[in-house]
Write a structure and sequence with these properties.
With 172 residues, the chain is mostly helical. It has one domain. The longest helix is centred in the middle third of the chain and has 32 residues. The protein is elongated.
Length: 172
C-alpha cells in the first residue's frame, strides 16, 4: 500500500498545482476582457478535473484511517470515484451541447468527445472495481482513473490556451 500512498500523494500535489494554475489563468484572463462561453467551459473542465484528482487522491488515504482491509478501502473509493467521474463527464458533456445549441460551436474539434470518453472509461473501470471485478488490480485501476483525471485537466488546459491564443490573434 505504501507505493499506492506515494502515488496518491503525488497525484494530489499535481491536482493542487493544476487547480492553482487554472486560478492564475482565470485571474489573468479577467484583466484582458470579456470571457467567451467556451473559455469558461474549458476552464471548468480543467478546474473540475484537477480538483477531482486532488480530492479522489486523498479519499483512500482518509478511508484507510478506519483501518479496514486495503481492498475494501479501494472498493469504497472506486464506488465514489465512479459516481464522481461519471457525473462530471456527463455534466460537462451536457454543458458543451447546450453551448453548441446556443450558437457557440466547438472550436477545437474532437477534444470534448475525447475528454468525455476518457472520463467515462475511467468511471466504468472504477465501477468494475467497486463491484469487485478487478481483483488484485484494484489499486492500479483506481490510480489509473486519477491519472485519467490529470490527463483531462492537462488536455483542457491545452484547449484553453489554444482558444486564448486564437483570441489574441497568435494562431489563425
Amino acid at each position: 500500500m505504501q507505493t499506492a500512498n506515494d502515488l496518491l500523494v503525488a497525484i494530489a500535489q499535481i491536482g493542487v498545482s493544476l487547480a492553482g494554475f487554472s486560478g492564475l489563468i482565470a485571474a489573468l484572463r479577467a484583466t484582458t476582457g470579456e470571457w467567451h462561453p467556451r473559455d469558461i467551459w474549458s476552464l471548468s473542465w480543467m478546474l473540475g478535473s484537477s480538483v477531482g484528482a486532488l480530492l479522489l487522491a486523498l479519499l483512500p488515504l482518509w478511508l484507510a484511517l478506519a483501518e479496514g482491509p486495503t481492498q475494501e478501502v479501494f472498493r469504497i473509493a472506486c464506488a465514489i470515484a465512479a459516481a464522481c467521474l461519471g457525473g462530471f463527464a456527463l455534466a460537462m458533456s451536457l454543458a458543451g451541447r447546450r453551448l453548441a445549441r446556443r450558437g457557440f460551436p466547438r472550436r477545437v474539434p474532437g477534444v470534448p468527445a475525447a475528454l468525455f470518453l476518457l472520463l467515462a472509461c475511467a468511471a466504468i473501470v472504477d465501477a468494475l472495481g467497486a463491484m469487485g471485478r478487478l481483483g488484485d488490480w484494484l489499486a492500479f485501476a483506481y490510480v489509473g482513473s486519477l491519472l485519467a483525471l490529470l490527463v483531462a485537466a492537462v488536455l483542457a488546459l491545452c484547449v484553453f490556451l489554444i482558444l486564448l491564443a486564437r483570441t489574441a490573434g497568435s494562431i489563425e
